[in-house]
Write a structure and sequence with these properties.
The complex is a heterodimer of chains A (60) and B (273).
Chain A lengths: L4 H6 L4 H44 L2
Chain B lengths: L2 H8 L2 H33 L13 H28 L2 H9 L1 H23 L7 H22 L3 H15 L2 H11 L19 H33 L4 H8 L18 H6 L4
The chains are: A mainly alpha (60), B mainly alpha (273).
């Protein structure tokens, strides 16, 4: 257990390694969530344009 | 329900879309909650290792990432077999949508391993059995990605990727048993089915939480990507067009308050003659 925040950040001299690993994991998680949202938006865009096409072709 | 009907339905994209609606948000919230708990626990409250000090905390990133890297590839191999043997449509979509996730997990496993190796082994990189086999795994993911893009015909691309995925599965037992077959600096498995972990519970419990969180993240990703891919592929079919025209509140990943524009706009527009 750590005594204070400074000790927590320093990680007994291994701070650079520990925080680099966790930082990379967090960055990848955020990237993953952003990509997932983009995938959903792309899908919705495609479906909407398809629906608009269908409606346009049905119009007299 | 008899097995044959169940098996048939399992491969049906429409059926999967119908039943999987609530799964996505469930798995995603579980994943984020578990990962938050496991990470804070592992970083702040687990005791330091008597030899490695605090650098051992990288285990809570490294092991879940490495487990995902291998599990995703195994899933791709199974999906490849289901696609080639039974032509299961859903398996083809799994093969198509899961590659980036596996690639990211493998890259994180290698990166966190390198960072852990420096203070522990004295080197960022060692060409021993497990690290080399995991590097091969990363190249297999790159190969699957490139192969898909290199072949214009989607069906032919899927078959080629299925074959590569199946052949590449041979690498998974090599990664798993590499620490027993060859002399290595890499430590053995933390969790085994037959024996209790060698480390105390205060150290392995947060790891278990993070591993479960990682698998929930995989499940959430798989369900979300599959649902999107199904909608895109089946956009000309009757049921997807009904979904877009109808008054369903949302066809999205999960009904969420900050995404109100998903359905209302098109139900208004489709009301026009």
């Amino acid at each position: 257990m750590f005594d204070d925040w400074q000790a927590f950040i320093a990680m007994g001299g291994h701070g650079l390694y520990v925080w680099l690993a966790y930082g990379a994991a967090l960055a990848l998680l955020i990237l993953h969530l952003v990509r997932l949202r983009a995938d959903w938006r792309k899908t919705l865009r495609l479906l909407r344009s398809k629906r608009d096409q269908d409606h346009a072709s049905q119009a007299p | 329900m008899n097995f044959k009907a169940w098996w048939h339905r399992l491969g049906s994209p429409k059926w999967f879309y119908r039943v999987s609606g609530p799964w996505q948000s469930l798995f995603l919230s579980l994943a984020l909650a578990l990962l938050a708990i496991g990470t804070v626990w592992g970083l702040a409250f687990a005791p330091p290792d008597y030899q490695q000090g605090n650098s051992f905390r990288i285990i809570y990133v490294h092991v879940p990432a490495a487990m995902l890297a291998q599990s995703v590839y195994l899933l791709l191999g199974v999906a490849g077999a289901l696609l080639l043997v039974w032509r299961m449509k859903l398996a083809g979509l799994v093969l198509e949508t899961l590659v980036p996730f596996g690639m990211g997990a493998t890259a994180l496993a290698l990166f966190s391993g390198a960072i852990w190796g420096k203070p522990t082994w004295g080197a960022w990189w060692v060409f021993d059995g497990r690290t080399t086999a995991t590097l091969v795994l990363l190249f297999l993911y790159f190969g699957l990605h490139a192969l898909r893009r290199a072949i214009p015909d989607p069906a032919a691309a899927s078959r080629a990727c299925a074959l590569l995925a199946i052949v590449g599965v041979i690498n998974i037992p090599i990664i798993k048993y590499s620490v027993h077959w060859w002399t290595t600096l890499h430590q053995g498995a933390t969790f085994k089915l037959t024996t209790a972990p060698a480390m105390p519970a205060a150290m392995w419990a947060p790891l278990l939480v993070n591993v479960l969180g990682a698998y929930c993240l995989l499940a959430a990703n798989l369900v979300a990507k599959l649902r999107n891919a199904i909608l895109r592929r089946e956009r000309s079919s009757r049921w997807v067009r009904d979904l877009m025209d109808g008054s369903q509140p949302s066809i999205g990943p999960a009904p969420s308050p900050n995404r109100p524009s998903a359905a209302p706009s098109h139900s208004q527009r489709s009301a026009a003659p």
